[in-house]
Amino acid sequence: MEGVPHTFRVTWRNSRDQRDRESEPVNITVCTGPSPPGKLNISSVHATSVCLSWDRPTDMEGVPHTFRVTWRNSRDQRESITTDENSTVLSHLRPVTEYSISVCTVLQNTSRESEPVNITVCTGPSPPGKLNISSVHATSVRLSWDRPTDMEGVPHTFRVTWRNSRDQRKSITTDENSSVLSHLRPVTEYTISVCTVLQNTSRESETVHITVCTGPSPPGKLNISSVHATSVRLSWDRPTDMEGVPHTFRVTWWNSRDQRKSITTDKNPKVLSHLRPGTEYSISVCTVLQNTGLESEPVNISFCTSE
């Protein structure tokens, strides 16, 4: 990069004697420009940022220099930074937008720039907003999410993926920002992820995650086997998909005066006593997990005691 002496002589031929003539030497010193950076590398691309690096020029050791990074999109929106490092993160970019990036070496003492090295990159789609669980049942979950606000006018869908601890995985694609995940296993933890997918390229955004545990299965059909003036014999089918899961049953009954009682029992059937004669009662039974107290949806039946 230092000044390099050069000597110039001008030679010409005399038309009369056809002899070459040479001028006195003239000396001048010129300084060559800085070497450009090496190849540009994109290590990660997100909706609003890009991680960029490049190789330092090997023949610039001992020469104070920096790098100027410039990027612009198709709207000719241009930004530039200067850095001592050979990597940087370009942030505050627009999703699903093509950017042209150039990097040049800049001499610190003169600000003289090298030729630029260029690369083109397209940012990805924005991820969905926060995931919300509005209802959880034994075999289904209702899920919703906020649409990305900066994706208007860009055709896209959402991919919803869920898996349990057994790594049983399923996935759906939807245009909506809500979905009901069904055919789940009771009392099972699921990890749910949602990402935005561009319709024209199938390119996916980063995923947004949430974890949920399905509830216990409700009991089967309730049966009244005998009705007396002050008691009733009640039975129900145990849920078939709760084997190996410690649980009990909560039995609740009430009459038209809203006089309510409740018991928790392992026994099936169960006799409910101390009822009022000639009174209509509603009974509900739900499954209760022993370790968490989480209840299933209730199963109901009504009857009237005898006079």
Polypeptide structure, described:
The protein has 307 residues and is mainly β. The chain folds into 3 domains: 40-122, Sandwich (Immunoglobulin-like), CATH 2.60.40; 131-213, Sandwich (Immunoglobulin-like); 222-304, Immunoglobulins (Immunoglobulin-like). 0% of the residues lie in helices and 50% in strands. The chain has no helices and 25 strands. A 4-stranded antiparallel beta sheet has the order 8-7-10-11, with no helix packed on it. It has a 4-stranded antiparallel beta sheet with strand order 15-14-17-18, with no helix packed on it. A hairpin with a 4-residue loop joins strand 14 and strand 15 (169-174). It is rod-shaped. It starts with a strand and ends with a strand.
Write the topology of this structure.
Blueprint (H helix, E strand, L loop, with lengths): L3 E5 L2 E3 L6 E3 L3 E5 L9 E6 L4 E5 L10 E9 L4 E6 L3 E4 L7 E10 L9 E6 L8 E6 L4 E5 L10 E9 L4 E6 L3 E4 L7 E10 L9 E6 L8 E6 L4 E5 L10 E9 L4 E6 L4 E3 L7 E10 L9 E6 L3
Antiparallel strand pairs: 1-4, 2-3, 5-6, 6-9, 7-8, 7-10, 10-11, 12-13, 13-16, 14-15, 14-17, 17-18, 19-20, 20-23, 21-22, 21-24, 24-25
Protein name: Fibronectin type-III domain-containing protein
Organism: Albula glossodonta (roundjaw bonefish)
Keywords: Repeat
Task: Provide a concise account of the structure shown.
The protein is an all-beta fold and 307 residues long.
